[in-house]
What does this fold into?
Amino acid sequence: MFTLRPALAPDAAFLARLEAEVMADHAHALWGRFVQPDISAFDLGNTRIVDIDGRAVGYLMLEDGGDHLRLRKLYLDPAHQGRGLGRHLLAQARAEAGRRGLPLRLSVLRPNTRALAFYLREGLEVAESTAERIFLISPHPAPATEKA
It folds into this structure.
């Protein structure tokens, strides 16, 4: 099983390494290059590290978008992809959006067809698209009503 913990300053190198590992090919396909992320630019306050047996294997970043909750990043080490962990993390992001009464939004780079297929399989809907990105939404659930 996994745990989520707040990201700390020492995690920044892991965040940068994992982003490069999972996003470089997509960036190259789209723009012909990948720019290594600036470690100091990571939003640690909105980032949760995914740990399995005390080892960081991924991260989740959620941002308040005002009228929506934005899933900014959901990255997993390739060795931990395809095992249902992403589904659990997405469910947690959706639950957080639901607690706030907001839809969950995210975007996927067009070359990242595996991620797009995952989100569509999980019931997200395409809201719009550009030459670079596909924007998806998971509508928030209807507000719970009290039973008499």
Observations:
- The radius of gyration is 16 Å.
- The first strand starts at residue 2 and ends at 6.
